[in-house]
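Before a colleague's protein record goes any further, I have to sign it off. Thanks in advance; the entry in question is below:
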Amino acid sequence: KKIWLFVWAITLHNFPEGLSVGVAAASAKESIGLGTTLGIGLQNIPEGLSVAIALRSQGYSPKYAFGVASLTGFVEIIGGIIGALILTMSIKLLPFSLAYAAGAMLFVVSDEIIPETHREGFEGGATGALFFGFCIMMFLDSVLGIKN
């Protein structure tokens, strides 16, 4: 069914999110890890809800929908552990790890999320939400960002 394609896509896109959290958390600057974790953590709430609601709309039980939604997020923990382990090997890998994680997230947004919103006719709302999310991240960066 199409619902399982959606669940699988969310699960796959959680891995690079986890990588970015792990890499950021293992970096030397605490504010990088906190800001990244907070930003990604906040967007995981509606993401998990969308998985659970989609499953409920197909007749699955609340307990089952909650379990599957939780498992899609578990992939992020695995990615986080791998991201942190990469940095424990060598701090010189930090810029490359952050670049990979950022690139993976940009790819997911540009290749999957934006085209899907435009196919469904939500261009205005999606663009507004993207802009609002960007403003929140800039605010978090200015409040929690790296201070020299």
Remarks:
- The chain has one domain: 2-108.
- Residues 31 and 59 are 42 Å apart (CA to CA).
